[in-house]
Amino acid sequence: MENLKEKLNVLYKKEEIQERIEKIANQIDKDYEGKEILVISVLKGAIFFTVDLVTKMKTPIILETIQVSSYQGTQSTGNIIMKKGLDSDISGKDVLIVEDIIDTGYTLKYLKEYLQTLNPKSIKIAVLLDKKERRKTEINVDYTCFEIENKFVVGYGFDVDERGRNIPFIGTLEE
Ligand code: IMP
Ligand code: MG
User: Fold this and answer.
1) What digits encode the pLDDT tens for the residues 22-42?
2) How far, in Å, CA of 138 to CA of 106, rounded?
3) How far is CA 95 from CA 42, 44, 85, 118, 162, in A?
4) Is 45 in the pocket of ligand 1 (CB under 6 A)?
5) In the chain, where the domains are located
6) Which among 24, 78, 129, 130 is placed 20 to 30 Å from 70, CA to CA?
7) Which residues are found with C-beta within 5 Å of the ion, ligand 2?
8) Would you state the CATH architecture of domain 2-173?
């Protein structure tokens, strides 16, 4: 098997990622003071970011997961399918969607619209990376760790055809 890690150019080191997440966690704690957050982690990519984010937060949470899919290889399709739904009722809850990356925006728009039909009290979105120039639909993101240019990223949850998620830094794959 070829070594994917060796083919990556480091974009954000482990330490830089953690430092930035800490800042976002503090901001979330301020914004949700006295509340409980129902965190919805978008499988599978956001698992890594979710764990580091919620363990840096002081605000109490309930953890939920959801899984949608829109991707084949390295191209976004805009075709979203729900692979795993929620396990509990989110009505009346303050929901925070935690996603690894926003690219075209189709995935998060679909998710937000779906979750809205379940009558939560509020919905906000936190993303690790934002490829802003790639946006194809309007969607507001509340917390962003890093804005990046249009390069395919791998590591710290990001995969290329399911490989590379456990690489401890975020790297770019130059094809
Ligand atoms: P969107 O619907 O176009 O915003 O795409 C969002 C989804 O595409 C994310 O949840 C990721 O799974 C995937 N994605 C987008 N860019 C990358 C990347 O550079 N590396 C790995 N996955 C990506
Ligand atoms: Mg994803």
Assistant:
1) 999 999 999 999 999 999 999
2) 9
3) 13, 19, 15, 11, 28
4) yes
5) 2-173
6) 24
7) 45
8) 3-Layer(aba) Sandwich (3.40)
Structure tokens at 132: 């802003």
Cα distance between residue 143 and residue 129, in whole Å: 10
Q: Kindly list the catalytic residues.
A: 103
CB neighbourhood size of 169 (10 A): 17
Which ligand is located closest to the Cα atom of residue 139? 1
159 pLDDT more than 80: yes
- Two tokens, residue 93: 């809850």
Q: Can you tell me which atom of ligand 1 is nearest the CA of 45? A: 12
- Which listed ligand is nearest to 167 at the C-alpha? 1
Confidence of residue 79 (pLDDT cuts 50, 70, 90): confident
